[in-house]
Amino acid sequence: MNLYSIETGNFKLDGGAMFGVVPKSLWEKTNPPDELNRIKMSARSLLIEDENKLILIDTGLGNKQSEKFFSHFSLWGDFSLEKSLAHYGFSKDDITDVFLTHLHFDHCGGAIEKDSNGKLSLAFKNAKYWSNHDHWNCAKNPNEREKASFLSENILPIEKSGKLQLLDSPKDSIFKNSPLKFDILFVDGHTEKQMLPVIKYKNETIVFAGDLIPTVGHLPIPYIMSYDTKPLISLEEKASFLDLAEKNNYLLFMEHDPNNELISLKKTEKGVRLDDSFTLKTYF
Ligand SMILES: [Zn+2]
Asked: Are residues 108 and 156 in contact, defined by beta-carbon separation less than 8 angstroms?
C-alpha cells in the first residue's frame, strides 16, 4: 500500500465559527486570523494506492461554484487536485473509489464538475462513490442549520450516475472489515454519521481526522466548531477518540490544518496535545 497527500486548494473560514464558544484571545494563538477574522484552512485529501485500487478520501471544494460563492471562502495558494494527482503520476480517470467522509461542500465539491454549458458530471468517471445511508438521507433532506453546507449539485448527480455505494452504519463506532482497504470510525457530532478512515500502514495506524479534529488548534476537548450540529456529542467523541489515539500511538492525518499534515500525540496535564508534526514523506 502507498499513501499520498493530495492538496486540493486552500480556503479560509471565520475564526469565531471555527472555535465555537472559545474566546478569540485563546484560539488566535494557534490559528491567527486575518483582518476579517478568517483563519487559514487546507483541503487536504488522502490517496490510497493498494493493488488494483486507487482510493481518494474527500475531494476538496472543486471549482464549479460561482465567484460570489467562493468569495465567502477566500481561496488562497496554488494547489489543485489535478496538479497534486499529476505530481504522483496519476490522473482523475485513474481513481477507482472516492470515499466521502461527509457531504459538506468543502469535502465533496470536487467530486462533481460543471462544463461550459452548466452540465454537471462526475469528476472521477471511473470511480465508485462511497457514503452511508444515514448521512446520505441527512444530506438530501438537510436541517436549516446545515443547509448551506449540503449543496444539491454535489449530491444528486452522484445518485443519478448509479455509481453511489451506501454503507450501513455499524453497531459499534468502528466498522471493521469494510469493503474498502481500511476500518472506518463513525462519528455524529459534526454531522450525522461522518466516516473517518482508520488505515494500517507500515506498522502504524493513521486516522483521517476530517472534521472531528480539523486543525491542531482543535485538540483541546471543548475547542469545537460552531458548525457542529451536536457539540456535546462532539465533546464525548473527541475525548474518547483522543484517549484511544494517544494510548495506541495513532498518527492523525489532518485535512484542514495548512501547517500540519500528519501529527503524533502525547498526554499532558491539560489533556492530549500535539507531540510532533510530520508529513507522510518525512515520517515514512
Ligand atoms: Zn464538515
From this structure: no
